[in-house]
Amino acid sequence: MSDAMGRRRSVDVGGLALALSDENRGHGWGGWEETDCGETRYAEVLIDVRVHTETMVSQECDHIHSFVDLDLDTRQRLVESLSSWHFEPLKLPDEEVIACAYILFEALYRIEHMQDTVSVSLGCVATFLQHLCQLYRQANTYHNFQHALDVFQAVYHFLFTSGMVPPVTLLLEDGRTWTRDRESCDPLISCLTDEDLFALCIAAVGHDVGHPGLTNAFMKNAKTPLAVVYDDKSVLEQMHYSLILQIMRHHNLGFLLDRPASGPLFRKLLLGTVLATDMGVHFDFMTEFRRLLDGADFPELKQRILVCQALIKCADISNPSRPYLVSQHWATALESEWSSQLLLEKHLQLPPSVRPSDSRVGEANGQIWFNNTFARPLFELVAEGIPSLEQFACQTRENLALWQARAAELAAEQEQPSEGGEPKAPLNWPSQAPNDFLNAFPPALPESFRAPDELPYPVCYHHHRRLSTIAPSTSSSSSTPSHYESCESSLPSPSFSPVIEPAAAPPPASPSSSGSLPPRLELTTVQSRAPSVASTTPSTSASVFSITNEATAAIRAAYKASVRKKKSFHRSSWNPSPTAVTALSQSAPVVPTLATNGRSPVSPGSSGSGDSPMSLSVDSQSTGMLTPSPLTPESSATEARTALLKAALVPASS
After folding, report:
1. What percent of the chain has pLDDT over 90?
2. What is the pLDDT of residue 465?
3. How confident is the model over 492-530, as pLDDT tens digits?
C-alpha cells in the first residue's frame, strides 16, 4: 500500500484479516462501531486536558517570597506550632500557611548533606511552593492548601517520631545541622534514603493540587474529560501526579525526574505515593503492607514505596488520630464540601456519590463507621511495622470511644423527626452553589456544564476566600462533630438518609434530538482577596489562547482526515468507516429546574444578584445556614441567595 507521494504505508495485518472476514465491511482491528459517532473523541479529550493543564502550569507566578523572611516572633510561633500534633492550619492566615510549608522544608534541609543530595536550593523550593499553593482551589472547604499543609505536617511528624528527620525546633538554633542515627530509627522506615524523604515531602504537599472539590465517583458518573483520559482509574490522583511533574519541570526541578540512575526510581516512588491517597485502593494497600510485615520477599524499591504509601495514607486520613476538637473541625469542613457536591449532582441529574449526614446521630455513627473501617485498622497495621506510630493509633482509639459515647447519648435523646414530614437537610450547608464550580479545573467538569465561551483556562480558578477560623461554637449545629469519611473516598457512609430520586427529573436530551441549547449556569465574577497565578491572565493571553485553539483545531482536522479510529492492539487500522460519522453535538443535557419560570434557583439570574495507575506494587460567599456554623464566616450574601440555596439543597437530599 502507498500514498499519493509513493511512500509505503504500514498495514495492520490482524485488522486486515478481521476486515476481510467481516462481510467485507471494512472493519479494522479496532473496529468501527456505527453507534459511536465520536471517532476522534479520545484525541479531542486528550488535547483538551493537555491544553488546560499546560496553560495552568505555564502561567508565571509572582516571585515574591514574603513568607521566607518572617519576623522572629512569627517564625518562632509557627515553628512551635508545627512541632505539635495539635497543629491547626485552618486557624492560620494564607501567608502563614505557605510559610509553614517552607519551614518544614527548611527543617528537612537541616539533615546533613540533604541539599547536596537532592541538588535543589531552598530558593527553588520557595518558588515551587508558591506556584503549587496557587494551583490549589481555595474555594474548597476541605481539599485546599490548608489540607495539603496538614498532610505535610503529619508526614513530617511521623518521620520525626520515627527518628528519620530532625525536630522542627532545630530551626531556632542558628546553623546547626542534624545527623540521623539509623540504629535508633524504626527498622522498617530506615530503608528510606534522603532522596526518598524529599520525594515523600513533595508528594505530601502536592498530593491534591488542582483538586476541584469533587470526588472520583463524580468524575466517573459525569464522564468528565479527566475520567475519559484516565479510564476511571484513580482519576484525580493521576491528575495530581501529572500536575506535580509539570510544576517541577516548570521550576527547573525536572532533573530529579530525568537522572539516568535515580530518575525512574524517583518517579515511581512519587507516583506510587500519590496514587495511594485514592481510598478506592485502600484495601489493596492493606493486603500488600500485611504481606510486607509477614516477611514477603519484596524488591527493595517496592518496600520503600510501601513505607511511603503507609506514611502518606496515615497523614491523609490523620484527622481521627488528631486531638478530638481538631478532628471535629476537619470533619465539618469535609461535610460542607460534600454538601456542595450533592447540590451540583442534583443540578446535573447525577446519582449522589457523597452522603452528608442529616442528623447528629447519623454523623456520630458515620464517624464510628469510618474509624472502625479505615482509620483504626490502618494506624494499627502501620504501627506493627513502625512501632513509634503506636501513639497515633492510641489517639484514634480514644476518639472512637468519644464518638461511641456521643452516639449513645444522642440515641437516648430520641431526636424528633422533621415537622410535616419534610426531608431533613444536611447539618452543614454547602459553601458553593453549582455555578461556583465553573472556576474549577475545566477537564474535571462535564463538558455540558462548562462555561459556553470559556478560555482554555478559567481566569478565576483560584479563590483566596478563606473560611473563618473553625472553633468550637455553642450553636446547635456547630457544637457537634461531623461525619467524616475520607480524603478521596468514593465509599458511601451507612449513615446517609437522604436519597436523590433521579426519576423526578426529566431525562437528558440526546445530542441528535436536542433542538436548542438548554439553560446554562453563568460564570460570575469572583472577588479575590489576593492575586494569584491562576486568577490573573497576562495581557497577551488572548493571542496565546487564540493560537492554541487554532493549533488544536488543526490537530483535530488532521486526526479526522486519518482513517484510524482509536487505539487498538495492533496500533493501526487503515479501513475507512462504513458509514459517515455524525459530528459530535455540543448540546448539553437538559438541566433540571429547581424554581419556577424555567430558571435554576442557584443561577445568578434567578436571584437578581450579579507510570501505571492503581499500582501499589511498584469569590463566592458562603451560603447561609439554618443555624450558625463554625465553617461559615459572617457573610454579606443576601438573604435571597441563602434561601435559594437552602431550597435547592433540601430537594437534593430528599
Report:
1. 47
2. 39
3. 333 333 333 333 444 444 333 333 333 333 333 333 333
Alpha helices for 251-323 (secondary structure H):
255-258, 263-275, 282-293, 300-316
Cα(451)–Cα(461) distance, integer angstroms: 13
> What whole-number distance in Å separates Cα of residue 243 and Cα of residue 247?
6
Q: Is the dihedral of CA 420, 425, 431, 437 positive or negative?
A: negative
3-state secondary structure of 2: strand
What cell was used for 34?
Answer: 456505527
- Cα three-residue angle 107-101-461, rounded to 5 degrees: 165
Go through 35-64 and write b for each residue having 16 or more CB atoms within 10 A of its CB, e for each that does not: eebbbbeebbbebbbebbbebbbebebeee
CA distance 87 to 74: 15
Residues 165, 615: Cα–Cα separation, whole Å? 28
Confidence of residue 431 (pLDDT cuts 50, 70, 90): confident
φ, ψ of residue 178 to 5 degrees: the values are -135, 135
How far are the Cα atoms of 286, 380, 413, 495 from residue 366, in angstroms, in the given order?
21, 20, 18, 5
Q: Is the pLDDT of residue 251 over 90?
A: yes
